[in-house]
Amino acid sequence: MDVLTFTDRGIYCPAGDFFIDPWRPVERALITHGHADHARPGHAHYLSTESAAPVMRHRLGDITLDTIGYGETRQIGSARVSFHPAGHVPGSAQIRIEVGGEVWVVSGDYKIEDDGLCEAFEPVRCHAFISECTFGLPVFRWDAQDDVMAAINAWWASCAAAGKTAVLGAYALGKAQRLLAHLDPGQGPILTHGAVEATNAVLRGQGLKLPDTVQVTAEITAKTHPGAIVLAPPSALGTPWMKRFGAVETGFASGWMRLRGVRRRRAADRGFIMSDHADWAGLNAAISQTGAERIFVTHGYTSVFRRWLETQGYDARIVETEFEGESVDTQDPQVAET
């Protein structure tokens, strides 16, 4: 029995008459997390986790939004639905759907490393698992977060010693706060682009503990805040907005920094390999822990990853969606609306 079907509007559950992360307007949308490729405007009714709701309201405005706690079960039509931590960004969830004893799970985006900021990933047993594979190649293997953050803090210190401002590119929801939570505030001021600071305010409002930051305004320069590090969306790097900081070094935190060609294309002074998506080992571990026999892969290296899963004995298929994963390019979907 197919609990879910795949349509031109999104992933659909006939038994509950709802969609999961639909990319075209629908009557009822269950949302895994607040990134713009998963939580889109125009739906009549939304359902998300309680901790994803503030960001969704910030981004989407006056929407009809209901919330659910992690692990809470809700009956929608003849489908039993529950949300479980995905470890991607604060409030992110995997969505479990059970119909007639058959269990399917939609992962949304996920990572299995506990970053100390968002709710840690929890494997969910199921018969069929819909998995992203943004980084579904063996070359993508992440270093421990503590090691990456030590390198970032050392880079910031070296920039300050050279009289330069360190400008670090990171997505405004999730990555920026993860970095912020592990920067050493004793090294100097931490400045933020307006898009990052707006998201910081929302997350602080729901109780997340983040170091003090200063939003960049017209009055903020390298002279007013010497030795600072700046957190900005990737789309701000290399723009006139950065001129106020004088001599700078730029860094970019992304899983794509594992590829030398991408590092060159981004033209950042430093690349730090950090992603809010699972790496090759994480994808394989998460899938194994579900116990699922049927795996549907979406947004990423789908062809390669499907073939690999087939060699491991899975019934693996590709699902075409409009999800983007972690973009190689500069545009941050959170900034387009800020």
Q: How many whole angstroms does the radius of gyration measure?
A: 20 Å
| Number of DSSP helical runs | 7
Q: Kindly report the name of the CATH homologous superfamily of the largest domain.
A: Ribonuclease Z/Hydroxyacylglutathione hydrolase-like
| Overall CATH class of the largest domain | Alpha Beta
What is the structural class? Answer: alpha/beta
E-strand count: 19
> In one word, what is the shape?
globular
Which segments are poorly predicted (pLDDT under 50) over 5 or more consecutive residues? 330-338
Proportion of beta-strand residues: 15-25%
Largest sheet report: 7 strands, mixed
Provide the helix percentage. 10-25%
Q: Kindly give the count of domains.
A: 2
CATH domain fold name of the largest domain? Metallo-beta-lactamase, Chain A
Question: What's the N-to-C terminus distance?
Answer: 43 Å
SSE sequence, one letter per element: EEEEEHEEEEEEHEHEHEEEHEHEHE
